[in-house]
């Protein structure tokens, strides 16, 4: 039941309703320019209630709903890195919207204004990811009947393209120098050399390489099984792969299989001398039984690059890009490359490595025209 009254020069409504426990509650709102406007708004509130909307959530703020959504659907279900990202997004939302902005008051235009502002100093990919997370949250709010349309849908994403489309990788001659160096000089005191060679020859992510255990390496069939990762950022141990498609088998070369066999023998000798037993059977635990951080491995990689006069230098993740670059240059099928990388589909691979594939396309066009000219 709604009542309409005038307060000063503005109109307000008061809607009474009973919650699920039978307790009578009220929704009040003022500031309407006319009695008719207040009446229309009150009718809408009653309509929402009749449709099953939770009016207790009707005034919930964006930040409070974000917290509620994270707690219900995300907390404890993802890696610590992903959960840290949720906290970062919360800070970004709070900085713009504040603590008191009601979720239902945000229109598509409001959200577009935020995206425009947010994208001024950020990469477009960062803007896209934030919008994606909030879109999922807003979908939940629609289901809860707090809002009736998702204000993030069809928003125009802004942001700085910057270096987003540019990936750093080694040329084939530098890749060859790097791999040969690691193959020659790797020993258990220089565990980084084993790790770098494995990354370069598999294209696996750093966390995936660290997560390898001896029961997931078949040196006879020359296959490594990627089923989990190692949390090198927080040191919490094994973690899930980035996504389902990241669980995969990667074929390895004879050279890498021989290198890993050498590592296994060295590791067994060192552990025996130390009286140490690794219950997790990790491949790349150091001589001091720790796992190298990404900072440490990148430092070792830069040292090798400098010694070999490799420029520009890349990070460990650049080995993944280098791996793909080399395969594309050697005309390896994109479907196989995509599966080898653990991408969900070839569209992801094509998007990330578009410029490399374009170079290949131009070469194929040239070869095609030359072949036709010989008719």
TrEMBL record:
Residues 57-142 form the Core-binding (CB) domain. Residues 165-366 form the Tyr recombinase domain. InterPro entries: AP2-like_int_N, CB, DNA_brk_join_enz, Integrase-like_cat_sf, Integrase_catalytic, Integrase_recombinase_N, Phage_Integrase. One of its GO terms (molecular function) is DNA binding. GO terms for biological process: DNA integration; DNA recombination. Keywords: DNA integration, DNA recombination, DNA-binding. Belongs to the 'phage' integrase family. This is Site-specific integrase. It comes from Lacticaseibacillus rhamnosus (Lactobacillus rhamnosus).
């Amino acid at each position: 039941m709604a009542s309409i009254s005038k307060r000063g020069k503005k109109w307000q409504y008061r809607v009474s309703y009973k919650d699920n426990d039978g307790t009578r509650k009220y929704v009040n709102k003022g500031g309407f320019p006319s009695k008719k406007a207040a009446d229309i708004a009150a009718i809408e509130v009653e309509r929402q209630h009749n449709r099953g909307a939770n009016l207790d959530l009707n005034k919930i703020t964006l930040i409070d709903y974000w917290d509620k959504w994270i707690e219900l659907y995300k907390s404890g279900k993802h890696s610590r890195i992903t959960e840290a990202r949720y906290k970062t997004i919360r800070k970004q939302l709070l900085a713009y919207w504040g603590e008191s902005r009601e979720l239902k008051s945000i229109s598509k235009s409001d959200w577009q204004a935020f995206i425009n502002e947010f994208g001024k100093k950020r990469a477009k990919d960062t803007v896209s990811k934030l919008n994606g997370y909030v879109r999922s949250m807003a979908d939940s709010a629609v289901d809860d009947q707090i809002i009736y349309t998702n204000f993030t849908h069809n928003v125009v994403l802004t942001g700085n393209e910057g270096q987003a489309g540019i990936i750093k990788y080694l040329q084939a001659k530098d890749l060859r120098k790097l791999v040969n160096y690691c193959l020659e000089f790797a020993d258990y005191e220089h565990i980084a050399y084993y790790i770098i060679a494995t990354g370069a020859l598999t294209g696996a992510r750093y966390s995936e390489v660290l997560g390898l255990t001896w029961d997931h390496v078949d040196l006879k069939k020359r296959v490594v099984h990627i089923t989990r990762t190692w949390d090198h950022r927080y040191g919490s141990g094994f973690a899930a792969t980035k996504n389902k498609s990241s669980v995969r088998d990667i074929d390895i070369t004879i050279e890498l299989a021989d290198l890993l066999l050498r590592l296994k023998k060295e590791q067994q000798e060192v552990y025996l001398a130390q009286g140490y037993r690794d219950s997790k059977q990790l491949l790349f635990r150091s001589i001091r039984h720790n796992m190298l951080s990404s900072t440490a491995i990148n430092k070792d990689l830069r040292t090798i690059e400098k010694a070999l006069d490799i420029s520009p230098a890349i990070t460990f993740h650049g080995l993944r890009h280098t791996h793909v670059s080399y395969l594309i240059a050697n005309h390896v099928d994109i479907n196989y490359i995509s599966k080898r990388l653990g991408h969900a589909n070839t569209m992801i691979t094509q998007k990330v490595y578009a410029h490399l594939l374009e170079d290949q396309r131009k070469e194929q066009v040239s070869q095609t025209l030359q072949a036709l000219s010989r008719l």
